[in-house]
Write a structure and sequence with these properties.
The chain is of the alpha/beta class and 170 residues long. It has 2 domains: 117 residues, HAD superfamily/HAD-like (Rossmann fold, 3-Layer(aba) Sandwich); 36 residues. It has 5 helices and 10 strands. The chain has a 5-stranded parallel sheet, with helices on both faces. The longest helix is centred in the middle third of the chain and has 14 residues. The N and C termini lie far apart (38 Å).
Length: 170
């Protein structure tokens, strides 16, 4: 029997929030982007990013119900060993707080890479796959760049890959 690792992204995959990334441009102007806009943003030379709104629990967070129900189903059918939450956020505490407030076990694995660089998620997956217990990875993710990075990590380690691209509706 194949052992599949299920990876669920947090922002705009499991939950929509009103958190914004503040971008300070080289010109001195600032702009704000929600996570879906930031995922498509091409950084310009001199940009500085402030992710502080993502370091708190999404107070106005709205579950993306079809994906959240899939998370619950996978947890029930496969167990905690085969499920991880993976986020570009730096701090796992707000994620855990939000998920436990919605009935997800407090000991679910949460990986935070602290970077918007898709390669950070790929490197996280490579480390996770070193355990040797997984033969396949299925990722729920809203960012196509992250999916490519994770697929490359799976290819590099000889592990099968499939995904569900989540369209958050923003």
């Amino acid at each position: 029997m194949s052992k599949t690792l299920y990876i669920f992204d947090f922002d705009d995959t499991l939950v929509r929030s009103d958190a914004q990334v503040e971008v300070l441009h080289k010109s001195g102007n600032t702009s704000s982007l929600n996570s879906a806009e930031f995922a498509k943003y091409t950084p310009q030379q001199g940009d500085e990013f402030n992710f502080s709104e993502f370091e708190i629990s999404p107070i106005e967070g709205e579950l993306i119900l079809p994906v959240f129900k899939r998370l619950q189903s996978v947890l029930q059918n496969e167990g905690l060993t085969y499920v991880s939450i993976l986020s570009a956020r730096e701090n796992p505490v707000p994620i855990r707080k939000f998920l436990t407030s919605h009935g997800i076990p407090k000991n679910i694995a949460i990986g935070t890479v602290g970077s918007a660089d898709p390669e950070a998620k790929g490197q996280f997956i490579k480390k996770k796959l070193r355990s040797g217990i997984f033969e396949h990875v299925h990722v729920f993710e809203d960012n196509a760049k992250n999916l490519v990075s994770i697929k490359n990590a799976c290819d590099d380690t000889g592990v099968g890959f499939s995904h569900t691209l989540v369209v958050s509706g923003r």
